[in-house]
Amino acid sequence: MHRLRRLKFWALAAVVVMAAGCAAVPPSSPTSASSSFPSDTAANARDATANGQTAVAAPPDAAQVARDDAMEMRAAEDAADHSDVPYSNIWQRIRAGFAIPNMDGPAMVPYVQQAVQWYSTKPEYIARMTERSRKYLYYILEEVQRRNLPTELALLPFVESAFNPDAMSSARASGMWQFIPSTGKHFNLKQNMFQDDRRDVMASTKAALDYLTKLHDMFGNWQLALAAYNWGEGGVQRAIAANQAKGLPISYGALNMPAETRNYYPKLQAVKDIIADPSKYGIALPDVPDHPYFKPVTITQDIDVALAAKLAGITIKEFRSLNPAFNKPVILAATKPKILLPYDNATAFEQSVATYQGPLSTWTTYVVHATSSPLQLARNLHLTEAVLRDVNNIPVRTLVKAGSTLLVPKPPQDDQNVTKHAVENAVLALAPDVPQGRLQRLIAGRYDTPFTVAHRYGLSPAEVAGWNHIAERGRFRPHSVIVVYSRRPVFRQHEDLIAKRDRKRTVRIADRRQFAHAYKHSLRYTMHPSYRRGVRVAQR
């Protein structure tokens, strides 16, 4: 049925094109069209004019092109919305949309073969990636096909992050699509205390496809667009300019690029080859149905992550795998976010929220009025320092500056949502905690821990642990030296402990020497032959 509809659609498109006349000449092959750079097309046109060849026709005006593009986009969307092809799984649907030419040149084939070899010898890694992708692949493929893009792009998260939405690179690139902070902001991905849309499944996918489309429009070639996605458009532009200045080709394999970028598209093609024929490489793909895994649900009230998972009937781990963008244990409704839930659990969640009796959120925000230590703030807010540090990601040996926003437990009588102003202006500013007081050294007792030392001298357990590079719940080795910064007169006690330790050590050493001397003396007589027989020499 779907094939018949597609035939009708393309037949109608052909009629429209024929009616419009032969205003443009199509490229001789898809490969040549997609692999040529815009500057090459302009050069060919100039050469044709110089040789006296007659131009086929003038290009259509911009308004007509825009109308045609809009009509084609609407047709593609209608076709996607009413698609009824009976694909047995998502992999068949992906295979049907492959459109980026393979790298078959001698310069790049070894890179592709190396990538295929690497993936095919790690079936357990492929199994983990593909199993993880089942939650996100349908949505990504829908977005790709809605834009009429090659379905290879839906496989790009395999290369970028192994479909891990929590992935973080050394360059601070985050999420399935690995956006760095600056590029994420350029594509309107929110990054604040409460959420990081670079990890948001829907927002990051739309931003990545927007970026890839922009790069394709810039370079006219999907392979170069993917190189720019990995390296940056500036790097690819400089490499192209360098080759053009030398009269060299500007294809992917001909450009001078970093090793990571050189291997980037070959990795994607390797994944594509394995998806196209998994049995050839001894790989078994999981059965991922061609059906949405999740459904977005808009929330209107602040809600704790743990409660949201409970009302949806799923585990917190499952909830976070679908909503990795939220940084805190609460989801704030100030920006009207959408949470993703398994398709069959979304309706149950909405019903449970409507009938739930009790507060949905137990957290609110607090603005720091004066620069303070986490210990002082925790005491003022009547909560433990460990909770304050953990929820707000405050490292040790730092102060919280005035004007910072902290997430704190909500008072029982407070039932208000966090305001949009508080969310959009929330910042956490930290400063190094220069210890107040004198650097002093103590001798650890047999049962001393950071908590006991901190309690004894009015310090913070986290501070004591940080100063001595020990876990906050750890225990000091007896008689080891403890470093503290305190205004209390602990120096005298330190001297007393040192003296007491030295006296004990002196006594122990003297006792050991006396015992050793007595032992040697007794041993010498014991070894005498007469004493071994128990008789005196005079009795022999």
Q: Can you describe what's shown?
A:
This protein has 540 residues and is mainly alpha-helical. It has helices at 2-20, 30-35, 38-50, 62-81, 90-95, 109-120, 123-133, 137-146, 156-160, 181-186, 201-219, 222-231, 233-246, 259-262, 264-276, 305-312, 316-322, 346-355, 374-380, 385-392, 420-424, 450-457, 461-467, 491-526, 529-533, and strands spanning 294-298, 303-304, 330-331, 338-342, 363-367, 398-400, 405-409, 430-432, 438-443, 481-486. Helix 19 crosses helix 20 and helix 22 packs across helix 23. The model is unreliable at 1-62, 68-83 and 525-540 (pLDDT under 50).
Gap from first CA to last CA: 123 Å
Strand tally: 10
Strand order of the largest sheet: 1-4
Biggest sheet details: 2 strands, antiparallel
Rg from alpha-carbon coordinates: 35 Å
Give the overall silhouette.
globular
What is the overall pLDDT average? 81
Structural category is mainly alpha
Q: How much of the polypeptide forms β-strand, as a percent range?
A: 5-15%
Helix content: 40-55%
Number of helices: 25
Low-confidence stretches: 1-62, 68-83, 525-540
List the helices and strands and how they pair.
Layout: H1 2-20, H2 30-35, H3 38-50, H4 62-81, H5 90-95, H6 109-120, H7 123-133, H8 137-146, H9 156-160, H10 181-186, H11 201-219, H12 222-231, H13 233-246, H14 259-262, H15 264-276, E1 294-298, E2 303-304, H16 305-312, H17 316-322, E3 330-331, E4 338-342, H18 346-355, E5 363-367, H19 374-380, H20 385-392, E6 398-400, E7 405-409, H21 420-424, E8 430-432, E9 438-443, H22 450-457, H23 461-467, E10 481-486, H24 491-526, H25 529-533
Antiparallel strand pairs: 1-4, 2-3, 5-7, 6-8, 9-10
